[in-house]
Structures
1.
Amino acid sequence: MIIGVPKEIKNNENRVGVTPAGVVELVRNGHTVYVQSTAGEGSGFTDDMYEGAGATILPTIEDVYSIAEMIIKVKEPIESEYSLIKEDQLLFTYFHFASYEPLTHAMIKQKAVCLAYETVERADRSLPLLVPMSEVAGRMSIQEGAKYLEKPLKGRGILLGGVPGVRPAKVMILGGGVVGTNAAKMAAGMGADVTILDTNLARLRYLDDVMPANVNTFMSNEYNIRELLSTHDLIIGAVLIPGAKAPHLITRDMLKDMRPGTVVVDVAVDQGGCIETCKPTTHENPTYIIDDVVHYCVANMPGAVPYTSTLALTNATLPYAIQLANKGWKQACADSNELKLGLNVVQGKVVYKGVAEAFNLDYTPVESVL
Ligand SMILES: NC(=O)c1ccc[n+]([C@@H]2O[C@H](COP(=O)([O-])OP(=O)(O)OC[C@H]3O[C@@H](n4cnc5c(N)ncnc54)[C@H](O)[C@@H]3O)[C@@H](O)[C@H]2O)c1
């Protein structure tokens, strides 16, 4: 199959859909890979590295879209890319269709085959192509939180790990899923005093078993959250209720219970945030202050560490990309329920129920397009 890797053109997106290591694997499987010039630059991969791996470099994005049968990228196509997409072309990338109606209509119009990373789903209902970004964001939340706790950045001026004779910072993590667990590992490793709250008792039992001694677990409810707020220095929002907005576990009136310089990193900002006063920020302007509480609410945290994020993402996507290239999308999706659930829009038809419902569009069962 002919595979194309365009350069991401969405603002501040430095990741790339395939690494040189991925090119080696695709070529070994008999495929031809075209990479747009400088596509890997933001992640530290030069054109020479791609050529050395067996890819051919093409100068423009138009060249890549016009030659490829399958496009592998990271973010959803943006307006200027819509017209480059060809009928029957397979696009394997994040789409997040339900959050942007014009994209859905554009993909219907172009009659492309859109296989969305975010809806590829395992039998245990986990989302293997979202997990890597949650791992990155969870680990990063502690790094960012520790930084904003510094006094010059308006924090409480407390060192996460303390020093001999001085207590470490207290870190409270709302939600013990992928983000929360990765945050807890980092905070615990730095010597902080960590508390994870979750509503899922089985999950708390598991975390209690595997976490080090400086991590405690607590049932998540309003009473417990209010009790902990006044004594904790760094709060991480890591809650997810699939398919719903994040619940506001910390309401505006609770901010007054927190000490000046407390830092909140609301990783769940992309689902509305679990702190009522959360509004999305960017890497250029990551924080704002309300009632002396520092809010960090960057919606695309992994974007700040493109080297790690690209490798983490492509480690997860490549095995699926190889299946799609080796078998063609129809056979690969017929053979793998995980991949089949990734199909959202196929040759003008919406085949993912959630997307059809979001915009009141006709729904076509995915089986009928295979
Ligand atoms: N900002 C970013 O850059 C970024 C990056 C990656 C992920 N995220 C977001 O982070 C959030 C968490 O993702 P995840 O992969 O960890 O999800 P996950 O499903 O692995 O974990 C969510 C956890 O929240 C728990 N939960 C649900 N309701 C709760 C409540 N009332 N109190 C406490 N816990 C509760 C669940 O039991 C679960 O353990 C999601 O909104 C995700 O989209 C953001």
2.
Amino acid sequence: MKLVVIGLGQCGGRVADEFAKLNNRAKSQRGIEIITGVFATNTDAADLSGLTTVKRDYQHRILIGGRKTGGHGVGKINELGAEVAKDDADKIIDAIRTTKRFYETDAFLLIASAGGGTGSGSLPVITQHIKARYADKPVYTMVVLPFEHEEQTEDRSIYNTATCLKSTYSVADAVFLIENQRYIRKDSSLVNNLSKINALIAEPFYNLLCAGEEKKTKHIGAKLLDAGDIMQTLVGWTVIGYGTSALPLIRMPGDRSRDFRKKGSETQKGIQTMDNAISELSLRCNPEDARRAIYLFTAPARDTNVDVIKEIGDYLRGLCPEAIIRNGDYPRASGSLDVTVILSELSDVEKVRDYYIKSTSLIPQFKKRAEETATKLKAIEETSKDIPSLL
Ligand SMILES: Nc1nc2c(ncn2[C@@H]2O[C@H](COP(=O)(O)OP(=O)(O)OP(=O)(O)O)[C@@H](O)[C@H]2O)c(=O)[nH]1
Ligand SMILES: [Mg+2]
């Protein structure tokens, strides 16, 4: 599957940069392309120059906002982010049009954080513009949710998240939910290592996008997972997970996996890897709420047998009884067994509901604060009424 990837704001731009790296890796390691163009847009010029892999020219690193923001961001005011995105949407569409071999693109992926200003505000706006301009291609979005400490200390990050989620969900074909906090659960050093988190966010897409682009027969599985399968799966609220298990490097001579005990242990390993993928989902959710799901099993050809694929499919079926489940296998020698899983069309997401509820109760508080500020300012002005003005 081939994507056009567009990162919006600081977080979006950096995660898009990781996708550009994935594409370079696919080209050098596998001789295939999974991305036709990567763009980063921001109101902040410094953030754009900090990227490493997105092409450096102004049509790939797109500065929006002009005089309204002066190249310095929108300081978490996502209404302003939305406004400048409306003003400059054509700039982004024009840039997309420069993509060489654009016609090969299967879908768009737009990425932003929800808690900031530029990305949060521009994500729904640009999604809507691209959908209107390219009616035949699905537009998927990826929304990165704030860390817990940000939610606890900044009401605005919750409000921004709620407005971004509501607006994006109403226009995008699917919304990948990514919880920043999940990535530091196991390794707290990651809190200061956003670039490591960004790499972990992009990684599950590597095999998933590569599988359908393989040209060599030996890398084409018994059941090829291609763009069509993925596009049939992605609808509404969506999460992605990735699990991996190392395989023994040395095999005994004559070992042809005929031994039923060995076969049993391969199946066991497959299920364990699927279980890892489910535990590592990008957002905590209830798999029972998924109405669609897809999994890709990647392993060296000799470690792939239909039983393993069937067993892990049965295992997933047990977790998501109401989902239409699609699947594929991808023979790639890598010394490991990998499972990528997507749960989509989630009928309920507790975390999203929480943002909506908290944010609704914040609105009267914000209003009250604004009124108090206005009253205080008026009082100062009042006391200055007998002072002569210099203007
Ligand atoms: N995973 C990840 N999260 C990030 C990164 N940079 C910022 N964030 C998160 O994104 C939110 C802040 O949004 P930014 O993307 O910095 O904001 P912006 O879109 O540039 O908007 P303004 O700076 O307000 O104009 C916070 O929740 C951060 O924790 C990043 O590189 N990776
Ligand atoms: Mg910024």
3.
Amino acid sequence: MGNDWKSRIRQNLEHREDIWLDTLHNTVFSRQSNPYHVMFKLAGCSYEDLVQLVRQGGIEDTLKKLRFAGVYLDHDEFKGFKPIVRSGKAIAATTESFANPIITGWFHGSSGGSRSAGTMTCTGTEQLMHLTAYAALNAEEFSLGGFPYVIARPTLPSIAGLLFCLLYSRIGCAVGPWFAFGGRLSNSLHYRILTAYIVALARWHGSRAPFPRHLPPNDFSPVARWIARQPKQMHRCALQAVASTGVRIASAALAEGLDISGTLFFSGGEALTDAKRRAIEAAGAEVFPAYWISEIGQIGHSCRQMNTGNRVHLFRDTVAVITDPREAPFSNSKVNSLLFTTLLPHAPYIFINVEMQDAGLLDEKRCDCVYQKVGFTQQISGIYSYGKLTGHGMTLVGTDIVHILEQSLPARFGGSPGDYQLVEQEGTNQTEILLRISPRIRIKSPETVQRYLLNSFRQYNGGALAYRVWQHSDALRVVFEEPLLTKAGKVLPLYLSKSAKDPDSVP
Ligand SMILES: [Zn+2]
């Protein structure tokens, strides 16, 4: 297994510069209405200039110069929350203006969150082949051939569960069971039917993708029980789940005295914090993070040797990443923001220096693994998300939440901005979303506020999914305590626990 997949990746790396230049020629420079086209023009950079810059200094060096010259998108510009203005000129654009105009896709999914029209990702056949190549690398690095590949992910509208079923079946792994969750039968029936239909279709075409088994509400113990029943060998099975779900499964095993030691947890969708890692390792399992951005695809994975912190090999054939130090929104902390640029012609979106409110550190470290050998020498460590809630792999943007906290809640229950605060923190066995309400506000039942808040989230694209997943996991709690203050004495509506820090990489 794997040589064809590897040569595909090696070729992309070898011709990385030419591929990117071609992609930009076809998607940006030949299209006058493309917003980047206008940015390049205002920056005084022609296609020929770009070619020269890349030949002289490489892609990353060119991207740093472009960032300085105004060719970039900050997060709110990409999401359409604020206008794009460069050199005093407004550039008309919506999120869809950045969708790749030259791909044909068939696999659409909603990203975990965000307002506006939501970010619909379109995964073309080429993109799927590419993701399959990464799955094959992963299977080789972790020798996934000999034991079950279990999935604990929601059904549609989240595409992740389905995608892992298809990718890992395709490369010959023993995929299944798929433990699905995401709402009660009454509010998710249509998605359950659609998911089952797609699995049936895939099976008809020869895939061995499993049908989902639905978990009872707020109960992950059936997964732990299933794993504990597998024969005890070095690895019982691999488990694909976001970090919070992984923690719930590990905690369920500990609580019931089930032996799930030797399980390989693969986490993605939210930062693997030290607390989450410890909780999973307490059950005798190992955990390895992946790095995905729904608008791009998979952009990194950890290897066998990365058993601390939140570190991955960066998939440099798919993306180029530079860092941009800035102040995080809704806080007063400095972060090392990551800017992403897509390189391949089949990327769902064309990104040039796009900020996705993720922070981390870039470095090159010697490593002896499958990823290193194929050419992924660059690594990102200490990855975490700022400016948005990402609990349980769901994403809600700060601006949406701030609107609810500062306007909707005071209007409905009384009080004013500063009386309500949403805190994302590491709970005892999962990431908790805590709504702190000043005790000065007289509210009889916390349940009423909780219900109101969950329903408010539903109005936003991605919020509906967060609603189902958070309800399933019982992850949202209401407490009557004064909101937390910053060192400067400010009340920030959104208070994010400082997450994943990679101890060996923080200067
Ligand atoms: Zn490695």
4.
Amino acid sequence: MTIVLTPPPEPKEVDLTETYDAIVVGSGAAGGMAAHVLTSHGLKVLLLEAGKKINVEAELRSMQWPYDHPRRGDAPPGWHALSLNEYNIRKPPYAAKNSAYKHVWSYVGGWGGSDYVKDILVDEKENPYTGTNYAWVRARVLGGKTNIWGRLALRLSDYDFKAKTHDGYGEDWPISYSDIEPYYDRVDTYLGISGHKEGLPHLPDSLFQRSHRMNESEIKLRKALLPMGRVATPYRAGVTTDGVKNKYRSKCYGRGACGRRPGGCDIHAAFDSPTGLIYPAMDTGNLTLRTNSTAYEITVDKKTGKANGVAFIDSQTHKALEAKAKVVVVAASTLESARLLLLSKSSQHPNGIGNSSNHVGHNFCEHLMGPGVTGLVKELVGKEHGNEDGRPGGFYVPRFRNLKDKQPGFLRGYGFEGGGGKGIFPDSTDRPGFGKGYKKEVRDYAGAFINMGGFGEVLPRYENAVSIDPNVKDAWGIPVLKFDYNFGDNEKKMAEDMAVTAKEMFEAAGIEIIGVDRELLTPGWSIHELGTSRMGNDPKTSVLNQFQQSHDVKNLFVVDGSSHVNASCQNPTWTIMALAWRSCDHLADELRKGNL
Ligand SMILES: Cc1cc2nc3c(=O)[nH]c(=O)nc-3n(C[C@H](O)[C@H](O)[C@H](O)COP(=O)(O)OP(=O)(O)OC[C@H]3O[C@@H](n4cnc5c(N)ncnc54)[C@H](O)[C@@H]3O)c2cc1C
Ligand code: SF4
């Protein structure tokens, strides 16, 4: 079936003599949402994106079978993806400038199918960082990481927003679930989300479109968990299954490539920022997009101390340029946003813009990963296979710890992402034998395995931080980030519990345990970096107010995961977009009233 989608709109001419209503830095989930909301309010917006615009459909080739690719999807020789050992044994920067490899990527480039992301992930040689071990995954292209994200789209609840009230640790957010609920609803409706209602207070339901179906092994697990008071729910995917009003996107046809990791969706049923947000914003006539524009400083008016624009480098020509605006909206992703704020030093803001509290870069948090379980559903061995591939994900087991109970040893909770059934590549190639018998064995076992891995909340701590390393610069001469980030006792105890409960759930379902992973992966593995410019009511201990607006500089907003007060254990992208929508509504209102 050929699906005909509307090509991207023609970009508007960039005019750097104009003072825009707003400049948005970064075009991922957060920046795309800011561009969408602000332009829909009639504001003239300039969107600066460090990466280039790629022909993403040609890049992703979602319908390409492994045998249609000369290297079965692998990248050309000379490309190297960092391994777990490299992350753990060595210290960053992980890729020396004189490395023998032509290009070095983060570990995501090491997943099968790397040819489909080789132009999306950053080259670590050009983009170094220093400090403690950290697996930092970045995508510098129009749309950022949303081009290849895993699409698990979850809401937070008051267990997260009011976590301090619940267990005494850290800070509450300056908002409640009721403040953000209408914006979650808007994101659901505008972008489309598939899933199944469960009525859980700690994982509120979305306005779901048709859910994909769980397969036999997943249903077996779901049935076993119900008496334990736990749930295995179909993967809540930021994917439109019934369609949305957007000529750049198609609904999901379940065509298979979602099972190929890494890789996105070339008909854009899975949300990505360019087709979901940026192209429709361009169609309003209010958005000017400039790609290849690496922001390195938020400029300020010397008299007022307010932001008045952004200084950036043309990523291709390396020419330094400036753009002017009434408001600056930072959305470069959590860590890049912290870098930009800290780099923006002036006599008015000697510690970096918006940093009178000395909290920018601090309270950096994310999700720990590693513990999980793999099992075999024996009755599925040798069974006829259905069309089990071609869906955006398997299942999700929401948090069940420290809700009504109180666990000894650790605070907060974790959830599991998992899947069973037959994928594009058989998951049993280590079966014994050779020749015809081996092929039969592989076919018989393919589809009988099921696995799940945990995502746990890393507590926010002031001492977990990033700062500027003045001694190391990236390929554009901009000082890089230095990590000072470690897991603590809470994370280690939580990880132990994750391995125990993962095993116990599979056992309860009568699934034969093949392996249990207990080790923590390198910090950063979840690609869910959060915090660094947290929201709060007190300007002494927080960077932003409840509208992601700087306490110090009222025409400066930071609308990505930087603002999160804690990481919770749910994947963050849907929350990032709901918050950005709410803040940009507020921004437009305040600008209209002359308050910025
Ligand atoms: C493989 C993978 C799987 C994932 N799975 C999930 C999942 O299942 N669920 C989930 O919720 N999340 C998932 N994520 C995370 C998700 O992609 C991010 O939460 C989301 O993209 C964050 O949006 P953002 O706008 O903050 O950052 P990004 O999407 O990274 O966008 C930031 C943009 O800013 C640009 N930029 C950076 N610095 C500058 C600068 N100085 N000047 C100009 N532009 C700049 C970048 O080039 C980039 O385009 C996954 C990510 C990956 C890579
Ligand atoms: S399964 Fe659906 S969302 Fe995934 S690649 Fe195919 S069409 Fe896109």
